[in-house]
Amino acid sequence: MRVxxxxxxxxxxxxxxxIPCQMFGTPPLGHEGPWYxxxxxxxxxxxxVPMRGSSGHHDLPGMFGVHATHGLDALRDAxxxxxxxxxxxxxxxxxxxxxxxxxxxxxxxxxxxLCSGGFVLAAAGLLDGRASAVHWKHAETLARRFPRVPVDxxxxxxxxxxxxxxxxxxxxxxxxxxxxxxxxxxxxxxxVARHMVVPPHRSGGQAQYVDVPIPRxxxxxxxxxxxxxxxxxxxDPLTVADLAARAGLTVRTLHRRFHAELGATPLRWxxxxxxxxxxxxxxxxxxxxxxxxxxxxxGSAPNLRAHFSRxxxxxxxxxxxxxxxxxxxxxxxxxxxxADVPGTLDSDATGLVDSDATGLVDxxxxxxxxxxxxxxxxxxxxxxxxx
Length: 387
Prior knowledge:
Helices cover 36% and strands 12% of the residues. By secondary structure, it is α/β, with parallel strands linked by helices. Helix 5 (170-184) runs antiparallel to helix 6 (186-196) and helix 10 crosses helix 12. Pfam families: DJ-1_PfpI (PF01965), HTH_18 (PF12833).
């Protein structure tokens, strides 16, 4: 069982504390297998810790609070330490907490911040030279107070393996789902997301906010139908032109709609969905890597390895071994595979080729430069630069 410590401090916002408590406290309904041993830790704990409604609210005294079950000594054997927020972005926490975080990180624990919790990690010196996500409203203050921290206010979260930083509010849910997916697999993360009625995955590189301020009233009015259509056909070599035709839009308008509603380009969204499908197949089936590549639409094993390793930091085979070692059972392929899915694709297909010349594709179709991106993809490079 993984030991997960949630650090709480007096007067910190209660919402960010509630996120890890909700997501890691008990396993989702129907989950079988390992889960987390969660501890609520505070300096001087166990004790009652008073909290605020949010960083912008002035609440009645005693309105919110949480009971810390452990003191900071519990960080000594924690596998993961989460700092959900801080009480004051203009004031450093205690030396005792900063020392406990440094010691935990040096020992090999994974350290995670949500929202303004990044200020605590920065004060401990853990974020020096590390690109860090934070709520956009705190970005200027974080950059000013800690000039050695590269602040990135444009993304939902950053994952460096040993250090993870997330933006505010619901981005904390995305980061926690990312942790569960990494630790226990996509099925466990999806079960938690289903229970919380939230999307099971938003890429860490997705924008913190988008141009449409109010959600559309009906799913049929937005991109929902074309996204559902594409997810059902990830095994096909879909192009941006295919998506535009299905949506009844020009390619240029489709790009604008994706940026406005999803904060990502069509190609980036497609790649994310294909990697998610590959993860699911690697976790739940014994299909060869070549077959996984075909089923998720990346065409070939080398292309799958290139994109998967770039997105996940490990190869498909390493990912499968890691999840098998964690006890994730493999399913027989017919349980989740569509019999109508073609068995082969053209040798140069990646499923991400923009056939209407809105993007540039290298000679062997393993590297893609999205339209409008400022950058260069060398011939044969396996990577994506999104606009």
